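Data availability excerpt. The first of two example chains:
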Amino acid sequence: MRLIGNQKSWLISAHVISGATWFGTALSMVIMVISNLNTTNGDELYAINSVVKLLDDWVVIPAANLSLLTGALICWFTVWGFFKFYWVIIKWIMTVTLITFGSFWLGPWTNAMTSISDAERLQALNNPLFMFDTKGIVIGGSIQILSLIFIFIISFLKPWGRRDIKKDQTKASTT
């Protein structure tokens, strides 16, 4: 089954919106974490970290997963497929890598940063673990943002063209 016309447009729209939501929220989170380092109020430090955690849990995670799901559906139900084009393969690798990195590192760092600022308030800024988590979020979040920009660019430009699958299969069968 292939999607046509409006079906394909709606699915691509959902994919673009979920990616844009993921990007915009990640950018906002990094900006908030950076600006929060200059706070002079412990309650404010915790409140902003709580908002960062809330955005991660309720916006970034669903948007990233929706982007992955809509991307899979686009591959499944359109001529692009999963492995026909190099740019699609790169998008898959990068998206899965970003979600994995977010799940195993950025998310736990965000949770730890929020917990520490809850317990220690302004003294958290002197806690090496808090500062490590904060730096991890700033650096990792920035890498995530730049990676998403790259994904957007290759989505529009569609570089590298189509894989020559028949040629690849011939090489595999002769070796």
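And the second chain:
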Amino acid sequence: MLKVFADRGGTFTDIVAVTNNQAIIDRLYQYPQRFLIVPLPNQQWVIVYKLLSENPEQYQDAAIQGIRDILALAEAQPLPTETIEVVKMGTTVATNALLERKGDRVVLLITKGFKDALRIGYQNRPDIFAREIILPTLLYEQVIEAEERYDAQGNQLVPLNLEQVQNDLQTVYNQGIRSCAIVFMHSYRYPHHEQQAAKIAQDIGFSQISVSHQVSPLMKLVSRGDTTVVDAYLTPILRRYVDQVASQLPGVRIMFMKSDGGLVAAEQFQGKDSILSGPAGGIVGAVQTSKRAGFELVITFDMGGTSTDVAHFKGEYERQLDSEIAGARMRVPVLAINTIAAGGGSILFFDGSSYRVGPESAGSNPGPACYRRGGPLAVTDANVMLGKIHPQYFPSVFGTDGNLPLDPDIVIQKFTQLAQEITTVTGDTRTPEQVAAGFMAIAVENMANAIKKISLQRGYDVTQYVLCCFGGAGGQVACLIADTLGMKTILLHPYAGVLSAYGMGLADIRAIREGGVEQTLTSELIPQLVQLMAALEIQARNEQTKVEEEEIVRKVNLKYKGTNSTLTVDFALDVAEMQQAFAIEHKSRYGFIQKEKDLIVESVSVEVIQKMDTPEEPVMTRTRALNKAPTPVETVQMFTVEQWQDTPVYQREDLEPEDRIIGPAIIVEKISTIVVEPDW
């Protein structure tokens, strides 16, 4: 049987497969350059494979093609689905649709008088001095104002005008709109009118109906409405992708990674849960492998081709309820991930006075200059120029036919031209390699600042943490990032280059349900909270199948009365226990506490976690004598600390437990490159 874990990133799609089929392994051993095969202790093997996410000349979908390549199937051959046990995936399909504004056409049905509420939003101005304020593009195409109104106490002030809603929805349906977002005032607590409107939309024939009391059952009309619109906008495009995958894998159990770090069955995967699908797999992979290695305090660092994602872990996954992604506000639990537009494909350019790195990315097509598709200089090219990436240790998947190695000559040529241009404009006589090193210093500083934002600026001492680096480019800058932050320990898992995909295999099924409360925290409130959580737990369990091993996590979101900054603590029957937990967290985050203020319970959440069968770690034993050092395969020139240095190159498979390698050195493997800087 074959278990497949796939992560479709912006540049590469990573596949990690686990099998006990000897025939598959014997066949793949004939292609050592394409597939990494790692034996496990229980007569199983892990297969690691990478391919370009976009290669329209060769295939339609990278994840399906990856499975075909592993099984050595020709294009016309059907997949032998009886040999595939499960496919767990993360996807950027919805994220890309949101970024590029290519979701479905949406009509917004909202309470009369609030037609422009979502457009007005919260009047936030991220760039306070901008004279031309460009609002994000609205995701909905038309607005219908429904004659209806409940007040905050549940009194029906205006009954829903069913005939008006019917006529208006029919009109937009006739115009070709098939996705409907329904958002009424106070419906998170009093959903009757939304239910009536949804029934009308269903009878008319709308294929996607997102109602706010189901999508985000919490107070705050604007963020609840935005979340509902995002769900209506993205779910149809996600459903088409899921159906396309399922059509090629009939009868196979397919699961997708949600933004909160849990898996969900393909048929229950929704747009609102999909925005951080890919990055979430990386966080889970980094955290679980770090815990297996004995680390409890983790900074995860995922550097891919297009962007870099960083996250903080201290005993449990950190989630945030309110987030803004690609100009869209969301009010659903997502992993707290800080993303910056700096990756291996980030474009390098000189603006006439200073070096710039990103935020534009060369992607995978055309990709960096060295990809042989006529692309611009990018961060990856800087590492080629500095001798940190060598074409002979990189897969030969470049050029229009996808069979050529990286091209170092064009990189040297372009950096030489850039150095001459900089000299002409500024009089600064830097060599091409010094220019490349300057660009790398800027990229590293940008990434280190992203880590400071989630750690130092929130009161955490990063020197006590392990830096778990992964992603195709993570190992190339790991030492530089750690040096910048004063971190002493770096963890690079054997599957670091594909850890987002491996994380799909390490994840559990998770269902989270929230309920709004907005009442003062007192002992009299506890029975009401217990009752609400019991109802939420039933809802969460309805999403899952019965299993032996499961865990229930109950949380409350608290804030000081009169403030808007909520903090999440564990639910307890003892009010004093929750008050103390909140005070400790508030002091750590903000540096002060306000004992005289009451605490408000804004909302509660219940998470039902079903444990899944996860792959074992590869067993590594030492066969060499302790005093015998590993032998490098060659010595190359690498530019570091302002000079070219002789640098040994080691194959990762030649290294054994307790080997010591002193920098500068390069460790190469099939799926990533690790650069050991001097003094490491």
